[in-house]
Design the sequence.
């Protein structure tokens, strides 16, 4: 079987899967829009129990969204709009909704996240909209694994997180595979402070 044929078969089988996280999320959204918030919440909770995610029924999502690795650990707030053919991998957080800081009598507009069409969001990425603002991820953009996004991403751009850096280097330790053995006190050697 060719790779193209295998991909087509996979898409057809995915559509048959009755309790996929995507279908449960879309069902909870449909129930919320039709004025059945308790049923929407129940379906959301079923999705949470089955797939360990938190997908808000108040979000606006295209019907062809794909959630990687059965949506494990994905958290998406209700103030999020997601376009067509978006792929979101596991442990991603999209959060918005906090109003701008003003006096308590007249709260400002709530923050929102708009994910345009054909966007891919990698594992462990975190997207946080600033207070009272709309954060937009442009059409065809890619958010790399582990990236933290707090500002707009232009269409077609790729966003990655900074590389890891060393914060503390132990100058007393010798580098090698026997590090743990050297730290273990014996009868002949005193314990290290």
Sequence:
């Amino acid at each position: 079987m060719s790779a193209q044929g295998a991909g087509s078969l996979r898409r057809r089988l995915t559509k048959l899967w009755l309790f996929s996280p995507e279908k449960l999320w879309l069902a909870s959204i449909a129930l919320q829009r039709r004025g059945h918030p308790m049923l929407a919440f129940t379906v959301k909770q079923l999705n949470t129990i089955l797939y360990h995610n938190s997908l808000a029924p108040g979000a606006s999502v295209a019907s062809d969204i794909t959630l990687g690795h059965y949506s494990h650990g994905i958290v998406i707030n209700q103030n999020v709009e997601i376009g067509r053919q978006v792929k979101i991998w596991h442990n991603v957080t999209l959060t918005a909704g906090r109003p701008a800081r003003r006096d308590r009598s007249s709260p400002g507009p709530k923050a929102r996240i708009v994910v345009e069409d054909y966007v891919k969001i990698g594992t462990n990425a975190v997207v946080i909209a600033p207070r009272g603002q709309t954060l937009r991820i442009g059409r065809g953009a890619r958010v790399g694994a582990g990236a933290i996004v707090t500002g707009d991403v232009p269409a077609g751009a790729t966003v990655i997180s900074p590389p890891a850096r060393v914060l503390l280097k132990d100058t007393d330790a010798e580098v090698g595979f026997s590090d743990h053995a050297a730290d273990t006190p014996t009868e002949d050697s005193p314990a290290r402070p």
User: Anything to note?
Assistant: The longest strand covers residues 112-115. Residues 3-183 form a domain with the UDP N-Acetylglucosamine Acyltransferase; domain 1 fold (CATH 2.160.10.10).
